């Protein structure tokens, strides 16, 4: 609710502070006193555009500041927390228009954009003077009205949980189908590459080992010849090395006792002779393993040729790299199968969730349809009581093929102001005054079910009087028991029901200028003001008595 509105340097207002209370706040005053100027200043807080023409003094900035009591307002709390604007205590919104025309907005002293201000304003105040942009003509609000009266809150919460899961499954399904389509484009080629590698059936490090083996087999004869020559030189031939060393060892052995060094050298020479003899024997034994095998060479060469072709195709140089590519191809091919399996599982889940969502949506639709007649009857009855006896509202529940976040329906309010039988969307055919009274009738019905912001009615009583004005006052009073209502009125029947009566007036200044001011009326002042609304500037005793009775009876 609005607690206080402060306005400085706006139009004909120098500076005023207006305090509001819970319940029904009535604003009265003579025509031209500045009542609508108050609403114009308030509209700046709600995000309206402004320019320097609003400045009373061109050399000073205009400041409009409004404090709100928002305790227990969950929707507002959630918005402020999400925007990191929440602070303990009251909510304070401020708008400044500099002499240069630059405008700034603040929420709890934090600079914000005009869009943020508008988003918050919708939650705080519903100002019924610009209905082309307000809720009554919006499908979402019309649906909320029907759902509030139909008691659909729990049903919609359950449906939205199912719908959320359905949307998540569909999102995942689209992603997987896109992945599968991409996989499918490459699947045949990947399968060909994989089959080629699988057919070769390479083992870890195999091609490198085969290359070494091929080199060995290709040089087997030369190696065998070299081994034979080495063995011959060591242990065969005319003067074998081993035999020569044995003879030398025998000569030195005879003198080893004469000198310590000779003994050591003789031992070393004998060890060398023995080592060379072992080497010769091993070389002779190794020579038996080096036999040329043309058939094996052909087999290796053929396998290496295939391997080297794959090296070139995949731009790699080792067997292990080919095996990594094979594993990656296997993973991709398995992924296609796995993705298809996931898609089938998700389609089954989607089918179940869709069936459940449709079932829940049908229950919501049924509840909405059951509320159509009672809502139309209640609103039409109230329209007649507020001076619109020929006006009719028609509520259409249009079931659509696709689900939305609130079920399967499009809710639309149609309006016929003159019993023409031609119903049109409210936003197209209703006048400002008609919309104000229509909104009053509708919101008075849903006030107990929906968290409404402060309602402001700017001269909702235009064109009505007598019993109709009385009924508007009754509805406003009822509505104000649940939410704060602020109304500018010229009707005594409405003003008499105020919980808080504010009077707007013009005050001449010493410099011959005119200043708008506002004061809160005490009971006696209220009686006089209402008597003047009944009987003119100098009300009769009867008018004073009628005013007193109206206030006391209301």
Automatic annotation (TrEMBL):
GO terms for biological process: DNA recombination; DNA repair; SOS response. The keyword DNA damage applies. Residues 159-220, 262-289, 336-367 form a coiled coil. InterPro entries: DNA_recomb/repair_RecN, P-loop_NTPase, RecF/RecN/SMC_N. Pfam families: SMC_N. Keywords: ATP-binding, Coiled coil, DNA damage, DNA repair, Nucleotide-binding. The keyword GTP-binding does not apply. Residues 1-506 form the RecF/RecN/SMC N-terminal domain. Gene3D superfamilies: P-loop containing nucleotide triphosphate hydrolases (3.40.50.300). GO terms for cellular component: bacterial nucleoid. One of its GO terms (molecular function) is ATP binding. It comes from the Bacteria. NCBIfam families: recN. Belongs to the RecN family. May be involved in recombinational repair of damaged DNA. This is DNA repair protein RecN. It comes from Arachidicoccus rhizosphaerae. The lineage of its organism: Bacteria, Pseudomonadati, Bacteroidota, Chitinophagia, Chitinophagales.
